[in-house]
Design a protein that fits this description.
With about 450 residues, the chain is α+β, with helices and mostly antiparallel strands. It has two domains: about 70-185, Uridine Diphospho-n-acetylenolpyruvylglucosamine Reductase, domain 3; about 185-410, Alpha-Beta Plaits, CATH 3.30.70.2520. Helices cover about 25% and strands about 25% of the residues. It has helices at about 25-35, 90-95, 115-120, 125-130, 155-165, 200-205, 245-250, 275-285, 295-300, 330-345, 380-400, 415-420, 425-435, 440-445; strands at about 5-10, 15-20, 40-45, 60-65, 70-75, 80-85, 100, 135-140, 150, 170-180, 180, 185-195, 215-220, 230-240, 260, 290-295, 305-310, 320-325, 350-355, 370-380, 400-405. The strands form five sheets. Strands 16-12-14-13-19-20-18-21 form an eight-stranded antiparallel sheet. Strands 5-6-10-8-9 form a five-stranded antiparallel sheet. It has a four-stranded mixed sheet with strand order 1-2-4-3, covered by helices on one side.
Length: about 450
C-alpha cells in the first residue's frame, strides 16, 4: 500500500525524524502493510516521550490509528475486545457513562490500546492493581514472519509475556481483550497532604498504601536544603453516589464539561526558565492545603489532557522525560541524589510526579517493583540534556534503579542488562518470532534490545 513521508517524533519532540508511514484502515490493508519488506515498527498516538515509536533508519512506521474498532463487550465480566488503534479516551467516552472504567490509566488518556500494552503502562494505583498488562486476557499478534498468533497466559504464554512491555518488538498488536472495572462514579474523594521534605513525602505515601487505591505526589524539583523533596501528596478513592452533591448524584458517571484549551504555538525558551519554574513551584506548594475534596476523573487522572498540544510550552528545543524506579531499600538515597543533581542543573520543570509502586509482574521487561518511581520533564535541547541525563543514569545504577523505555531517549545501552536482568529471556522470544530482525525502532537499535 502507499506510504507517505512524514515528520515523526515522540511527545518530547526529541528526536525528530522524517520517515515513511503506512496508515491501513482495513484488515487486508493492515496485513499487506505489515508484509512490506524492510524494517518496521508499530505506532499509535505518539505519546511515548522518546524514540520508542520511531522507525529505525531505513524503516517505516505502521500506524494503528486506522484500525480502531470496538468489537465486543461482555457485561458479566467486563471483557472488552477492541482493535489496537482504539484510544483510552474513546473507551472512557463509551464506557464510563455505563459505570465502567479502565483498570489502569497513565497520566494521559490519549494512548492507544496497543501502545498501553506495548509499554505496559502504569498509573496511580500500581500498588493495588499492578500494570495494564495484568488485566489483559489475550491479544492477537501479527508476526514478523507472516500470519498471526493469539496469545494469553494459557496459550503461547512466553510470547504473551514478552509482548506486554515489549515496546512493539515482538510484532504488531492487532487486537486486545482487556478487563474493564466497575466504578461507583466518575469522581474521587481526594485527600491532600503536604510533605515538608523528601523523607516526609515518602512517609506519607507509604503510610497510606493500604487505605487509598490511587496515590501520587507532585514534587518541587527546585527546592534545596532542608526543603529538598518537599511535595504535595494526593490520596484518592472512588466516591459513591451518596458522597456526591445532589447535582452530581443523579448522574454519577457523567463528567463535568470544561472548556478545551490549546497551546497555539511554540513558546519561547524563557517561558520555562529557572525563574518561572521556581515561582510556579513555590506558589503551587504554598497554596496546597491539607484537605479532602471531590475531584472528577478527568481532573484527577488526566490534568494536562484539557490543554491540547501542551508539549509546545517547551518550544522547539523539545524536552525529555526522565522516569526512574528505585526499590524500597535504596529509594530515599537514590531520589535524594537525583533531586540534588536536578537542582544543581537548574533545568527542572514544573511537572514532577512521584508514585508508590507495588510488586512486579511476570513480564521480562516489567518496569516497576516494590518501591517508588519519579517522573519529570527536563527541557532541551539535546546537547544540554545529555550531561544531566548521564549523571542521573549513573545515580540509577548506583542505587539499583532503572529507566522506563516509554520515557527514555538518552540512556546508555551498557546500563540496560543490569537494569533489566531478564533481557536475555525477552531477546530469546523475540529472536524466535523475528529471526531476520525486521521489527526495529530507534529505541531498540539504540539500546540493543534485539541481541
Amino acid at each position: 500500500m502507499a506510504m507517505t513521508i512524514e515528520p515523526l517524533a515522540g511527545w518530547g519532540r526529541l528526536p525528530l525524524v522524517s520517515a515513511p508511514q503506512a496508515r491501513p484502515t482495513t484488515t487486508g490493508e493492515l496485513t499487506a502493510a505489515w508484509a512490506v519488506p524492510g524494517r518496521r515498527i508499530s505506532r499509535g498516538l505518539g505519546r511515548a516521550y522518546g524514540d520508542a515509536s520511531l522507525p529505525a533508519a531505513g524503516g517505516f512506521a505502521l500506524s494503528a490509528l486506522g484500525m480502531s474498532r470496538m468489537i465486543s463487550f461482555e457485561v458479566a465480566t467486563g471483557l472488552l475486545v477492541a482493535e489496537s488503534g482504539v484510544s483510552l479516551a474513546e473507551i472512557i467516552e463509551v464506557f464510563l457513562p455505563r459505570g465502567w472504567f479502565l483498570p489502569v490509566v497513565p497520566g494521559t488518556k490519549f494512548v492507544t490500546l496497543g501502545g498501553a500494552v506495548a509499554a505496559d503502562i502504569h498509573g496511580k494505583n500500581h500498588h493495588v492493581d499492578g500494570t495494564f498488562g495484568a488485566h489483559v486476557a489475550w491479544l492477537d499478534l501479527l508476526l514478523p514472519t507472516g500470519g498471526s498468533l493469539r496469545c494469553s497466559e494459557g496459550q503461547e504464554a512466553a510470547v504473551f509475556r514478552a509482548t506486554i512491555g515489549g515496546m512493539g518488538l515482538t510484532g504488531h498488536i492487532a487486537r486486545v481483550a482487556i478487563r474493564l472495572r466497575r466504578v461507583p462514579s466518575a469522581w474521587c474523594k481526594v485527600r491532600t497532604l503536604r510533605g515538608r521534605d523528601l523523607s516526609h513525602t515518602l512517609e506519607l505515601l507509604a503510610a497510606n498504601d493500604g487505605s487509598y487505591r490511587h496515590t501520587v505526589a507532585w514534587m518541587d524539583c527546585v527546592a534545596v536544603g532542608d526543603r529538598l523533596g518537599r511535595g504535595v501528596v494526593m490520596l484518592g478513592n472512588e466516591a459513591s453516589p451518596a458522597e456526591l452533591p445532589a447535582k452530581n448524584a443523579a448522574a454519577p458517571h457523567r463528567l463535568p464539561r470544561r472548556p478545551k484549551l490549546a497551546v497555539p504555538f511554540d513558546l519561547p525558551e524563557c517561558a520555562l526558565g529557572p525563574f518561572t519554574v521556581g515561582a510556579f513551584n513555590a506558589c503551587y506548594y504554598g497554596l496546597a492545603k491539607d484537605a479532602e475534596t471531590l475531584v472528577d476523573f478527568e481532573k484527577f487522572f488526566f490534568p494536562l489532557d484539557t490543554i491540547r498540544d501542551w508539549n509546545r510550552i517547551y518550544g522547539r528545543r523539545g524536552f525529555a522525560q526522565f522516569q526512574a524506579y528505585f526499590p524500597d531499600a535504596t529509594a530515599e538515597a537514590g531520589l535524594r541524589a537525583c533531586l540534588a543533581a536536578i537542582g544543581r542543573s537548574r533545568q527542572a520543570s514544573f511537572l514532577a510526579v512521584l508514585k508508590r509502586s507495588g510488586p512486579a509482574n511476570d513480564f521480562p521487561l516489567s518496569f516497576l517493583d516494590l518501591g517508588y518511581t519519579l517522573a519529570l520533564d527536563i527541557p532541551g535541547p539535546a546537547k544540554t540534556l545529555a550531561p544531566l541525563m548521564a549523571e542521573l543514569d549513573a545515580i540509577l545504577v548506583a542505587h539499583r534503579g532503572k529507566v522506563y523505555f516509554a520515557k527514555d531517549a538518552f540512556v546508555s545501552p551498557a546500563l540496560i542488562p543490569a537494569m533489566y536482568p531478564r533481557l536475555d529471556e525477552f531477546r530469546l522470544v523475540r529472536r524466535s518470532l523475528d529471526p531476520a530482525g525486521t521489527v526495529r525502532s530507534l529505541l531498540s537499535n539504540r539500546l540493543k534490545l534485539h541481541d
